[in-house]
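Researcher: Quick sanity check before group meeting.
Model: Go ahead. Protein one:
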Amino acid sequence: MSHSVAEVLTGAAVLVVGIGFAVWAADSAGRGFGTTKTYPLTASFRAVDGIQVGSDVRLAGLKVGTITKLELNPTTFFADATIAMQEGIQLPSDSAILISQDGLLGGNYVEIQPGGMDDVLGPGDEIEDTQGSVSLISLLMKFVGGSSSDSSSAGAAAPVDGG
């Protein structure tokens, strides 16, 4: 009978640890049971490659919000994003928002660069200064393609001196 009590206690301990881990993981992902209050902001991007609902919004490297909605604007053909910003963080109205990348192989996140104006963005306001995601592969292709075409056009334009 002592074996069954030990097994029940071991099972209960594993269950408690599992529930604790699930709560910690949900809280770390921003979907926790905490009472963090947020307010909505919007932004319109040309491209949101690598960003999805749930992506981090960072200010000075710290998470201050989350992307809660992404949808295509049928009029402008831009991606409209809704952001849940932590209450208490008041952004100047001339702040910029851009899609950045964590290193060469890291994931993408949304970065806010605060402006310098005195008036602040309120709930539902739009951050107008945006920069969409930049594809590293397309940048490399432009670099490789641009350097070879520049050298060939420079050689063709230079006069040939026969003397």
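Researcher: Fine. The other one?
Model: Protein two, sequence then structure:
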Amino acid sequence: MRRILSGDKIVIATHNDGKLHEFSGLMEPFSIRTVSAGSLGLEEPEETGTTFEENALIKALSAARASGLPALSDDSGLCVDALDGAPGVYTADWAEQADGSRDFSMAMRNTEEKL
């Protein structure tokens, strides 16, 4: 079912300022204002999908329901053919440190080690 955007604001389901900036640039020619889920104080939902598409849908639906506004999201990661597509949707998990922060250099080192 296709819905038409009413109004001029959309939630970008992210807590990443860089990603918000990228999406804002894409929406600007259409005079659509963007606001991030993070700036609205929305919690990050658990990404339980097994595909990038499923995780993007989880994030967008969560932001739309919590904010009452249309929402847009994406999900991405590194897919290495020699590792049967790993880390894929688990790229962030490969970067997670004991304190909960993420170090993507560590994820790349983990990938190199597994290769």
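Researcher: One line on it for the slide.
Model: The CA atoms of residues 5 and 70 lie 7 Å apart.
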